[in-house]
Amino acid sequence: xxxxxxxxxxxxxxxxxxxxxxxxxxxxxxxxxxxxxxxxxxxxxxxxxxxxxxxxxxxxxxxxxxxxxxxxxxxxxxxxxxxxxxxxxxxxxxxxxxxxxxxxxxxxxxxxxxxxxxxxxxxxxxxxxxxxxxxxxxxxxxxxxxxxxxxxxxxxxxxxxxxxxxxxxxxxxxxxxxxxxxxxxxxxxxxxxxxxxxxxxxxxxxxxxxxxxxxxxxxxxxxxxxxxxxxxxxxxxxxxxxxxxxxxxxxxxxxxxxxxxxxxxxxxxxxxxxxxxxxxxxxxxxxxxxxxxxxxxxxxxxxxxxxxxxxxxxxxxxxxxxxxxxxxxxxxxxxxxxxxxxxxxxxxxxxxxxxxxxxxxxxxxxxxxxxxxxxxxxxxxxxxxxxxxxxxxxxxxxxxxxxxxxxxxxxxxxxxxxxx
Length: 420
Fold this sequence. Notes:
- By secondary structure, the protein is α/β, with parallel strands linked by helices.
- It has helices spanning 18-23, 28-36, 39-49, 61-66, 91-98, 100-114, 128-144, 174-181, 210-222, 224-228, 261-267, 301-306, 325-339, 345-362, 370-381, 388-403, 405-414; strands spanning 77-82, 118-123, 159-164, 205-209, 238-245, 251-256, 277-281, 290-291, 315-320.
- The protein is 43% helix and 12% strand.
- Helix 2 packs across helix 9 and helix 13 (325-339) runs antiparallel to helix 14.
């Protein structure tokens, strides 16, 4: 029986309070690393755990930390990406609202490992409760000596600042987030240089997701072998899955990495009575859709990649057989078009044309050659942009056209939606 790790305090009354966190063993990891480990040893510990980033890319966390140069003469920064703009994703919000000290301890341990004294939590401005609880938690941690100068009697100094975003999806991209933090227009940077070498204020910077950082204290206390024993070898650990859409029990579920997708949907109660699952978007709307016959796939980075999709933010959106996939595709591309920063011509102009064609098809005004035009536009967008926004839009539409092309054809030939 799997026991929750990251969500263990979620339903505990006062779970956001320091006293509750300490009562459950909170800040033991911070005390342990300051007492027993050098920064390099903490990095090696996280490397051995094979923790991969929970923000979407799945890059090995310890390896990312090791890229930070040792001697640069510049300050080093740690940034927490808490923007969480991917539709269907709400795991980080719950962690920050219900158990903010878990994130703060993860930030402190991670900052010690990379040699940073300052961290910024870039959070969605709409997350009012999460922001309030984080502010309270930071103040309480300062008062108790877990943040500030000479933490727990060591030589380690560390401060956490909160920066509220203004609701731009593009700020979930790490370099656009850095631009926003610096007070500039949020647009992705050309890489290299990568943030580990020249990030915030042109200084070495590590950017990690909320869930990634929340895993770190548990790895320190329980050990990397414990972490690796959960889930598949190449993508281990506990994982938070956000399940929404047409299921009977939508919500946030903590289960082992690699759980079969159909089993995850069963945990959420399955589709409404009398309906069957048509498809599932496994990782937020930028992840290509998985049709019903592919639901045996494991919910981990490598298994989903092999199936032509991706784990992404683990925002699982279930679609039943009452839903029109043309409408789904249109709404998703409208979102990406609206949120495009406009920096790249393929994304800015390509998505504009894709939206026009999809709206025409959905309205029963499609024409011969429209689907071929969409295929061509996806080809022109994918791989030709500064960031993954355009790639996600193109991959999602390609998958919809591949698995449900007959619905697009029906809209064009019958000049109406067969589901109305």
